[in-house]
Amino acid sequence: MAKAFGVNRSTIVSAMEELMSYGMIEAAYGGGTRIASNTWSLFLSSPPDWNKYISSGPFKANVPTIQVINKLEFDSKYIRLGTGEISPDLFPKTMMEDLMKVLPKRISSLNYLGPHGLPELQESLSKRLAAMGIEAKPSNILITSGSLQALQLISVCMLKPGATVFTEAPTYLKSLQVFQSAGMDLNGIPMDQSGLMYWKIEKVLQGSLLYTISTHHNPTGTIMPQGRRREIYDFCSANRLPILEDDAYGELWFDEKPPLPIKSMDKSGMILYTGTISKTLAPGLRIGWLVGPESVVDRLGDVKMQMDYGASSLSQWALTELLESGAYDDYLKTLRIKLKERRDLALDLLERYFADIAEWTAPKGGFYIWAHIKKSIPSDKLFHKALSKNILLNPGSIYDYKENRSIRLSYAYADKKDLETGLQVLSTIIKKYK
Ligand code: PMP
User: Which Gene Ontology MF annotations are present (predicted)?
Assistant: First the structure.
């Protein structure tokens, strides 16, 4: 027997009124209420409820501060004091022009490549890694579309939702987002002058991972010394805790080479290692690499084929040519000198304008100076105050919510004049803050 449902009269009346307001029903004098003649076309022309669609899917939205940074970075009125890219005036135009002349001769086609990337590039990287103490056959190397993709692949293929990822606190903000969106349980471990204080890790559950930026850390600029690298390696081996070592900045040292990557100690295949040309040369080429055991490289390569069918083959040929010709290494030598000049300028300016209002440590490479403001100014507030004076900052809170009085300053992007203006204006904002 059919079940009878009672509907309140006022519900029906308000539904009718709503349909009427959309023009979907019409009342004809003496003819009652009926479906309007144009309802079907109205229905076809009205969009689906996109808000329901766009709130689905695994990715979390960026926090509002990051959304603002992502948008305003492309507005030329802002001085970018936090940007983690080399400045357009450091871009090696002549090297790229020369490359464009020879590249067509090398390329026989720009068809899809196999799941691991361009074999010639794997071969070149294998040699380069050997010089850094890392034993990696070409079959241990996966070419990715930027090293961020390697983090993404790892989080969706190798870690179960809820798995613990130990990171430095603070850490690279996009890695935080990638792991968070994949449902990982992030466990930020405090740092000292030598990096991650591994002894603060309380419990290692099966299926966890330790993510570290061992050299020229983002955002703090710290270099983990050899001793701490060895201790972390031993600790992780003893606890069967795999390491993911992110070496995005390793080649950007100034006076002396940093210690070899932790990966160079790895005899059992417990460390995954990532590299990229985004910091040294061009994030727009979207080339990174992951080094690991063949089983891992094969699995991630297989999933990468489902994601994007391979990194840009043009970019892979370009990098292969730059590595084989030696042009990349020559360029790195000059880049290090120019970056060091910028670092020195930034330190001079900090000394001049920030001596009594902030504390910082001089970085020995990479892009960043991590400055702690002495006054109690929440870094989000400072971000908005700076924005009103056309300065774009990276507040510490986006790297770790506890870092509310720090800012990540980058000397890599803004030109020298902007760096001076930006830092001077910022110091005035801080001094005036009540
Ligand atoms: N790792 C670290 C520590 C980074 O700072 C960055 C870029 N900001 C990346 C990885 C990602 O670089 P990409 O995906 O462009 O290679």
Answer: DNA binding; DNA-binding transcription factor activity; pyridoxal phosphate binding; transaminase activity
